[in-house]
Design goal:
Keywords: Copper, Metal-binding, Signal. The protein has 155 residues and is of the alpha+beta class. The chain is built from two helices and nine strands.
Length: 155
Amino acid sequence: MKTTLFAITAALVASSAFANGSHSGSHDSFGQPGRAADVTRTIQVRTLDTMKFEFQPAVGTIKKGETIRFVVNNPGQLTHEFAIGDTASQQAHAEMMRKMPGMQHEADATTVSLAPGASKTLIWKFDKAVNGGIVLACHIAGHYEAGMHTRISLN
Protein backbone atom coordinates (compact mmCIF):
# COMPACT_ATOMS: atom_id res chain seq x y z
CA MET A 1 0.00 0.00 0.00
CA LYS A 2 2.77 2.46 0.95
CA THR A 3 4.68 1.63 -2.25
CA THR A 4 1.58 2.23 -4.38
CA LEU A 5 0.79 5.49 -2.59
CA PHE A 6 4.41 6.63 -3.01
CA ALA A 7 4.35 5.78 -6.75
CA ILE A 8 1.09 7.68 -7.28
CA THR A 9 2.38 10.71 -5.33
CA ALA A 10 5.67 10.71 -7.28
CA ALA A 11 3.78 10.51 -10.59
CA LEU A 12 1.51 13.41 -9.62
CA VAL A 13 4.44 15.58 -8.56
CA ALA A 14 6.29 14.82 -11.80
CA SER A 15 3.17 15.45 -13.87
CA SER A 16 2.52 18.82 -12.25
CA ALA A 17 6.15 19.83 -12.73
CA PHE A 18 6.01 18.95 -16.43
CA ALA A 19 2.62 20.60 -16.88
CA ASN A 20 4.02 23.77 -15.37
CA GLY A 21 6.83 23.81 -17.90
CA SER A 22 9.54 22.62 -15.53
CA HIS A 23 11.49 20.68 -18.10
CA SER A 24 14.74 19.06 -17.12
CA GLY A 25 17.55 21.52 -17.68
CA SER A 26 17.33 25.26 -17.39
CA HIS A 27 15.22 27.11 -19.92
CA ASP A 28 17.03 30.35 -19.25
CA SER A 29 20.33 29.10 -20.68
CA PHE A 30 19.40 30.81 -23.96
CA GLY A 31 17.56 33.91 -22.74
CA GLN A 32 14.45 34.92 -20.86
CA PRO A 33 10.86 35.97 -21.47
CA GLY A 34 10.83 39.38 -23.09
CA ARG A 35 8.75 42.48 -22.45
CA ALA A 36 6.58 44.02 -25.17
CA ALA A 37 8.21 47.42 -24.55
CA ASP A 38 11.64 45.96 -25.47
CA VAL A 39 10.65 44.25 -28.75
CA THR A 40 13.15 45.06 -31.51
CA ARG A 41 11.27 43.20 -34.26
CA THR A 42 8.19 41.11 -34.87
CA ILE A 43 8.14 37.88 -36.86
CA GLN A 44 4.92 36.28 -38.10
CA VAL A 45 5.12 32.47 -37.88
CA ARG A 46 2.76 30.04 -39.58
CA THR A 47 2.76 26.40 -38.44
CA LEU A 48 2.01 24.37 -41.53
CA ASP A 49 0.52 20.88 -41.77
CA THR A 50 3.35 20.09 -44.23
CA MET A 51 5.56 20.02 -41.08
CA LYS A 52 7.27 23.32 -41.81
CA PHE A 53 7.34 26.76 -40.26
CA GLU A 54 6.84 29.78 -42.49
CA PHE A 55 8.43 33.02 -41.23
CA GLN A 56 7.55 36.53 -42.41
CA PRO A 57 9.97 38.21 -42.54
CA ALA A 58 12.71 35.59 -42.41
CA VAL A 59 14.27 35.22 -38.97
CA GLY A 60 17.85 35.47 -40.27
CA THR A 61 20.49 35.84 -37.57
CA ILE A 62 19.42 36.80 -34.06
CA LYS A 63 21.63 39.36 -32.33
CA LYS A 64 22.55 38.79 -28.69
CA GLY A 65 20.37 41.12 -26.60
CA GLU A 66 17.58 41.25 -29.19
CA THR A 67 13.95 40.86 -28.07
CA ILE A 68 11.69 39.28 -30.68
CA ARG A 69 7.91 39.03 -30.74
CA PHE A 70 6.82 35.83 -32.49
CA VAL A 71 3.17 35.98 -33.57
CA VAL A 72 2.38 32.32 -34.21
CA ASN A 73 -0.64 31.28 -36.27
CA ASN A 74 -1.88 27.75 -36.99
CA PRO A 75 -3.95 27.91 -40.21
CA GLY A 76 -4.03 24.12 -40.64
CA GLN A 77 -6.05 21.17 -39.43
CA LEU A 78 -3.45 19.71 -37.03
CA THR A 79 -2.37 20.84 -33.56
CA HIS A 80 1.16 22.29 -33.54
CA GLU A 81 3.51 23.94 -31.08
CA PHE A 82 6.22 26.54 -31.39
CA ALA A 83 9.11 26.09 -28.97
CA ILE A 84 12.22 28.24 -28.61
CA GLY A 85 15.38 26.72 -27.17
CA ASP A 86 18.98 25.76 -27.53
CA THR A 87 19.93 22.25 -28.63
CA ALA A 88 20.00 20.83 -25.08
CA SER A 89 16.63 22.24 -24.04
CA GLN A 90 14.99 21.09 -27.28
CA GLN A 91 16.33 17.57 -26.74
CA ALA A 92 14.91 17.58 -23.20
CA HIS A 93 11.58 18.92 -24.51
CA ALA A 94 11.44 16.20 -27.20
CA GLU A 95 12.10 13.48 -24.63
CA MET A 96 9.39 14.81 -22.34
CA MET A 97 6.87 15.01 -25.18
CA ARG A 98 7.62 11.37 -26.07
CA LYS A 99 6.83 10.40 -22.47
CA MET A 100 3.83 12.75 -22.13
CA PRO A 101 2.40 13.41 -25.62
CA GLY A 102 -0.63 15.33 -24.33
CA MET A 103 1.50 17.75 -22.29
CA GLN A 104 0.27 21.34 -22.16
CA HIS A 105 2.51 24.41 -22.07
CA GLU A 106 0.41 27.17 -20.49
CA ALA A 107 3.04 28.02 -17.87
CA ASP A 108 6.07 27.55 -20.15
CA ALA A 109 7.38 30.87 -21.47
CA THR A 110 9.39 29.12 -24.21
CA THR A 111 6.52 27.25 -25.89
CA VAL A 112 3.03 27.85 -27.23
CA SER A 113 0.63 25.06 -28.21
CA LEU A 114 -1.81 25.88 -30.99
CA ALA A 115 -5.05 24.15 -31.88
CA PRO A 116 -6.14 24.49 -35.52
CA GLY A 117 -7.06 28.11 -36.26
CA ALA A 118 -5.38 29.46 -33.10
CA SER A 119 -2.91 32.32 -32.82
CA LYS A 120 -0.60 33.08 -29.89
CA THR A 121 2.25 35.46 -29.18
CA LEU A 122 5.59 34.59 -27.63
CA ILE A 123 8.13 37.33 -26.75
CA TRP A 124 11.69 36.24 -26.05
CA LYS A 125 14.85 38.14 -25.11
CA PHE A 126 17.97 36.43 -26.48
CA ASP A 127 20.43 37.85 -23.95
CA LYS A 128 22.75 34.90 -23.33
CA ALA A 129 25.48 33.25 -25.36
CA VAL A 130 24.34 29.97 -26.89
CA ASN A 131 26.47 27.10 -28.17
CA GLY A 132 25.07 25.66 -31.39
CA GLY A 133 22.47 28.34 -32.04
CA ILE A 134 18.78 28.61 -31.32
CA VAL A 135 16.32 25.91 -32.38
CA LEU A 136 12.68 26.69 -33.18
CA ALA A 137 10.69 23.45 -33.12
CA CYS A 138 7.40 21.59 -32.89
CA HIS A 139 7.48 18.53 -30.64
CA ILE A 140 3.99 17.18 -31.29
CA ALA A 141 4.49 13.44 -31.94
CA GLY A 142 6.26 12.95 -35.26
CA HIS A 143 6.39 16.64 -36.24
CA TYR A 144 10.03 17.32 -35.34
CA GLU A 145 11.10 14.07 -36.99
CA ALA A 146 9.18 15.11 -40.14
CA GLY A 147 11.24 18.31 -40.36
CA MET A 148 9.31 20.82 -38.25
CA HIS A 149 12.36 22.59 -36.80
CA THR A 150 14.70 25.40 -37.77
CA ARG A 151 18.18 26.25 -36.47
CA ILE A 152 18.97 29.98 -36.19
CA SER A 153 22.38 31.56 -35.58
CA LEU A 154 22.82 33.86 -32.59
CA ASN A 155 25.49 36.56 -32.81
